[in-house]
Amino acid sequence: MLYLQLFYTFFKIGMFGFGGGYAMLSMIQGEVVTRYGWLTSQEFTDIVAISQMTPGPIGINTATYVGFTATGNVWGSVIATFAVVFPSFILMLAISKFFLKYQKHPAVEAVFSGLRPAVVGLLASAALVLMNKENFGSPQEDIYSFTMSCIIFLVAFIGTRKYKVSPILMIVACGIAGLVLY
Amino acid sequence: MVPLIEKEIVDKRKWIAKEDFIDLLAISQSTPGILAVNISIFIGYKLRGIRGSIVTTMGTVLPSFLIILAIAMFFHNFKDNVVVERIFKGIRPAVVALIAAPTFSMAKSAKINRYNIWIPVVSALIIWLLGFSPIWIIIIAGIGGYLYGRFHHPETNHCK
Question: Does the pTM exceed 0.90?
Answer without folding.
Answer: no
